[in-house]
Amino acid sequence: MPRLLLALAVAAFAVLPARAGSEPGRSGAVPAGDSNRPLIQLKREAKAEELPAVDQPSAAPAAPAVPAARADQRYWVVVRAMTRDQRTAIAGAGMSIEEIGSNQVAGVAHIKTIQKLKALGFEILFQTSLARYTKDFPPQDKAYHDYKRMLEALQSLAKANPKLVSMFSIGRTWQGRDIWCARFNTTESGAKPSQKPGAVFVGNHHAREHLSVEIPLKLAEHLAAKQNDPAVRKLLESRDIYVIPMLNADGAEYDISTGEYKWQRKNMRVNPDQEIGVDLNRNYDFLFGGEGSSGDTYSDTYHGPSAFSEPETQAFKAFLEARPNVKTLQSYHSYSSLILYPWGGKDSPVEDAQDLKAYKVMAAAMAKMTGYTAEQSSDLYVATGDCTDWTYAALKIFSFTTELYPSYGNGGFYPGAAAIDKEAPGNIKAALYLVEYSDDPHRAAAATR
Ligand code: 0X9
Ligand code: ZN
Predict the structure, then answer these.
(1) E strands, 344-442, where?
(2) Is a pLDDT exceeding 50 seen at residue 165?
(3) Pocket test for ligand 1, best of 39, 206, 334 (most atoms within 8 A of CB)
(4) Which of 208, 277, 267 is nearest to 52 (CA)?
(5) Disulfide-capable partner of 290 in 173, 191, 377, 384 (CB 3.0 to 4.6 Å)?
(6) Which has more confidence, 386 or 413?
(7) Closest CA relative to residue 435, chosen from 245, 215, 201
């Protein structure tokens, strides 16, 4: 896209009138009341489909279910058009023409308008979601990283530590954002294979769980800042560490796109019926489409049309399959203060007794470090298509889900800036522990004998 057009896109967005009735009148963080504890218990007892309702503090306003149909589905588009008649037809299809060139026009079109234009035979030369020209976190939560600042944070680590940190994109989101990965390895960089045992830390399967972006970022910063600390150095030299803070970048950006949180959970796929999103943590191929996931496109736990239907889960799958040295994985979510291990899609424990022992020992150790509770995922509720079930079942990666708990601030999904520093130290300790045992997680169990 020419620079001028990009600037115009931003400018055009800035002057776009607010769509009548497009935003529910709700403020950002919902006050949590005295404690989140009862909520967490409720959540534990709940089935996944009921989550949005029980996640609400009792004193809070009515549940702000994500208004999927109201998601901003507009794009800045450039369409080939030579004549005035063509421009008229384009305007008639519903596009607001903001710029006219000799053989193209640029402006704003809804996704359905783009489909109409295509049906009329028009060539779309460029399209970019307006969701990327976002506002930001509300002022009180500026410490959180939006997509751009997350990328800048990783870039500055890589730039300052070229012998330790490299970066690459594992693929693109539905709206076309790169999914960035920072790699910590003293001998290999970028996508080059490594024989060293690998550990992966991924955040933000769920858009509104912004703390799950911050914790892996803090881990990345810690690894760089403490690289000369002997214990950290030893891990850096002997392991291959990957940090992917923002898997659901489209959803995370949408969630903050108006300066007020939107309680978005899913990715930003436009489903055939125009409902928005697939729950990425129901889209993996382990008992796909079963309990704890929904076939309704409007549902917050919509599993998608098929396993790995989403570009985000496809990218993550390909990334892991290409790296057989990866032995451990941590997937960050919020909130409940839990260290979870498979299975989550069924009630029975993992079948391999040695694995189960290692899972229990490691989860207990990480629970101690974080102050969280260790349990089998399905104790929370059964949910199929979960990331960590698949990574363990298909790739034998020892995989954990951490439900971070914002033990400071307002609680819930939007716990405030103080939660970052409050939750980081324990989770960094737990992450380093996981990295250490990535050569052979069974060693963790042996160590306690
Ligand atoms: O439901 C989820 O995907 C996770 N909880 S969240 O509130 N962050 O959405 C929990 C995943 C744990 N896995 C299973 N219970 N299967
Ligand atoms: Zn989650």
Answers:
(1) 373-376, 398-404
(2) yes
(3) 206
(4) 208
(5) 384
(6) 386
(7) 201
The more confidently predicted of residues 271 and 60 is: 271
How many beta carbons lie within 10 A of that of residue 41, not counting itself?
Answer: 12
Give the span between the Cα atoms of 82 and 394, in whole angstroms. 53
pLDDT at 317 over 80: yes
For the record, the structure tokens of 434 come out as: 């996981």
Could you say which DSSP state residue 55 is in? T
| Residue 436 identity | E
Helix H or strand E encompassing 188? none
Residue with the nearest Cα to atom 2 of ligand 1? 281
From the alpha carbon of 265, which atom of ligand 1 is closest?
9
Contacts of 70 (CB under 8 A, 6+ apart): 22, 23
Is residue 337 lining ligand 1, measured as CB closer than 6 Å? no
* Domains of the chain: residue spans and CATH: 139-254+302-446 (3.40.630.10)
The pLDDT of residue 94 is 85
32 CA to middle of ligand 1, Å?
20
**Tens of pLDDT, residues 77-113:** 899 999 989 998 898 888 888 777 889 998 888 899 9
> Do residues 222 and 157 make contact, with C-beta atoms less than 8 angstroms apart?
no
* Known active-site residue 403: yes
Q: Where are the alpha helices (DSSP H) in 198-325?
A: 211-225, 230-238, 249-255, 311-321
In this predicted structure, the answer to whether residue 432 has a pLDDT above a threshold of 50 is yes
